[in-house]
Amino acid sequence: MLALYLSVLQTEEEKTEFEAIYDSYEQFVFAVAWKRLENSSLAEDCTQDTFLSIAQSFEAFQEVPEENRKAYLFRVADRCATKIRMTETKRKKERSLDDKKFPENSRATP
Q1: Which residues contact residue 67 at a Cβ distance below 8 angstroms, ignoring those fewer than 6 apart?
Q2: How far is CA 18 from the centre of its chain?
Q3: What pTM did the predictor assign?
Q4: What are the CA-CA distances from residue 57 to residues 28, 88, 89 (Å)?
Q5: Is there a contact between 50 and 29 (Cβ–Cβ < 8 Å)?
Q6: Which residue from 14, 42, 58, 105 has the least number of CB within 10 angstroms?
Q7: What is the pLDDT of residues 3-32, one digit of tens each?
Q8: 84 close to 42: Cβ distance less than 8 angstroms
Q9: How many of the other CB atoms lie within 10 Å of CB of 33?
């Protein structure tokens, strides 16, 4: 997945800097996502989305002071987790409604 993030960046310097950030904060971002989602697969998706977002707006991220980067990553990961949680809640509600409309044990009569 790291290769995808690096492909978004323009210069070798940006790629090297991003890789260092990824190595330093990947576990932190995953922990934030896990705490919010309590599902490792969804937390991994959130981690990937967070770093893709950072890579896509890397120039803006580079302007964040070093001492504020962890908080910045926390905010991005938290927003991502909230979005995923809302999507999952909506899917569960839709499935629940489908189950009520079309119970598995009911059979159509000819």
Answers
A1: none
A2: 17
A3: 0.81
A4: 20, 26, 28
A5: yes
A6: 105
A7: 888 899 999 999 999 999 999 999 999 999
A8: yes
A9: 26
